[in-house]
Amino acid sequence: MPAAPTPAVSTSALSSCAATDAVLAARRRFFSGAPVPEDALAQPILRSWTRCAARGLGPQSRSRMEPLTDGEFAARRERHEALRRRCRPELEALHAAARAADSIVILTDPSGLVLDTVGSADFADRAAKVALRPGVSWSEAETGTNAIGTALVERRPVEVRGAEHYAEANGILSCAAAPIHDPFGELVGLLDLSGPASVPHLHALALVELAAGQVEHRMFEGAFPDHSLVRFHADPSFLGTAREGILVFEDYRLVAANRPGLALLGLGWDALGAKRFGDLFEGSLGKAGEERRVRTRRGDVAMRLERQGLPVRTIAPRSAPAVERQPAPVPAQPPAPTGPRFDAATERDLGRAVRLMEAGVPVLIQGETGVGKEVFARQIHRRGNRGAKAFAAVNCAALPEGLIESELFGYEEGAFTGARRAGFKGLFREADGGVLFLDEIGDMPLSLQSRLLRVLQEREVTPLGGGRPVAVDFALVCASHRDLKQRVEEGSFRADLYFRIAQYTVTLPALRTLADREALVDRLWAELAGTGPAAPSLSAECRAALAGHGWPGNFRQLVGVLRVLHALAEPGEILGVDALPADVRSAPLEWRGAGRPAEIMPARAEADTAPSQDFGARDLGAGDLRAGDLRAGDLRAGDLGTVTRAAMDAALAASGGNVSQAARRLGIHRSTLHRHLAGRGARGGH
Hints:
Blueprint: H1 16-31, H2 43-54, H3 70-79, H4 81-100, E1 104-108, E2 114-119, H5 121-128, H6 140-143, H7 147-154, E3 158-161, E4 173-181, E5 187-196, H8 204-218, E6 228-233, E7 245-250, E8 253-257, H9 259-264, H10 277-280, E9 291-296, E10 299-307, H11 322-325, H12 344-358, E11 363-366, H13 373-383, E12 391-395, H14 401-409, H15 426-430, E13 435-439, H16 446-458, E14 460-461, E15 470-471, E16 475-480, H17 484-490, H18 495-501, E17 505-507, H19 517-529, E18 537-538, H20 540-548, H21 554-568, E19 574-575, H22 582-585, H23 589-594, H24 632-636, H25 640-654, H26 659-666, H27 670-682
Parallel strand pairs: 11-16, 11-17, 12-13, 13-16, 18-19
Antiparallel strand pairs: 1-2, 1-5, 3-4, 4-5, 6-7, 6-10, 7-8, 9-10, 14-15
């Protein structure tokens, strides 16, 4: 029986320097055999060190962290496909935060095997040097103390910073991890946010814990149709959010729950099967849909019965393997209300996109990271004549190049070592009759672009390993934050494929260009925190700061910050500017209002009805340029050339003159930066 839900563990209360000194002193005492004072180190870290030492691991030993073969890894990912799809909204939500903090977001299976990573490409390269990459196991038994492995052993969110890692080689990492439990208390996976130990990651643990809670909350959607599902919380404004308690009863016997529900009643997972409704609440279940106040041993709560179960039904026995006991996969759901809402111009574009999709015309969605491209794509699907069929989504940038082909095209039995015995039909065939959404198509390898073009022309798919071609019928929607015209010019994207997918192009506006941003902040906060008397609120200064910030990560970044504020807020608290993350709080007003000097994506205009064949040089962008890298005077200058030169100079200075790094900070290709620099040199530079 799983242990009771336990609180998160973090050492963030210590200052960075003090924490490092204390941990190094504790390491010296531990590895010399001297006792370590209880207050010198977080207890889960000390327990983990003790377990590692008992296993014979040495702090300087390098374990053989060999990745699985492509076939073995494909089989493991396939086994956890339902988990991967269920976690995708959280991976995407954390993506912008990870890139901004030079970090990566990681999803693992219950054993600690890394299934997916998204985030900073620079840090991903550095993390790969210590084998923090897909296909590698980070269990505590194999790698020593680390957030992934230790959180799985401790069954609680854990943060491991720098020298707290048992292996010295892993001291370059700062990691926060939160396990994901199914409604029966079994571990089904884990979310981790990892970055360089040299950079403070103040909210990492709160972010992954909140994300894991969102995943667990969605596991109840459609999973218990024949049971009574109760939602409750002391504050009724939390009903319907991931912080509500959820209990599932079968003939008045408790059979499933989420962690908040158990915590609100002071219970552990051993209450499943042992407690009845009358043991926990006074009175009866009540009527379905009715919201009422009910007394518990810990005080009154607001309760709503979601559905009335049928009597005398049985669920899977608890001795069954965890993977078999997971709730049935839920069909793809649209994102939660906390996300982009379309203005009038975008609504018109959406209407046109739906009509063209129904006429068989592919749609390309362009826009910066976080503006809501997938939300727009799902609305095309929902509002069109294919809404009752599948919506198959794949992020071309998130899939390893060695696996993307099998994910899209599928494979026959025996196509490669480790392939499933029954084969896999692939996302093209899963989308048959519905909509196929290829996100970040600009990152699709060239070798696959020709195969995709052939599928679009012939409307047939040939699985890996041979077999007969299979006819497919799907509507195609693609998206990219990259300028695909520039990618064609650079030779990294096929021109014929571009013209095939970009027959109708919509460019979504950036958050900073919207008119009434303060009203938007108010709406998102109300949806997230509720409006009850105990709901936390934002001060006028805090709202103004949020509305005025440049938000390079757009809606995704804004919603991520609001989630952090909500997770850390006390009931009824009024949050001021000091509660904001440092990068939002410290951005100068000139930068907040100005946004970035120039955008990689073309300025918003009417949606393109046909792609242009002019592949001239694009304006310089500023993808990851930090606010402090530009002088306020440069932003006030009003001359685009001055601002562009200032952006290039700031990025080059921050990158120590490294053109490749500067281009990544600006969010452009290095050839574009070289071209601008060469042009300045021909004109005399500055």
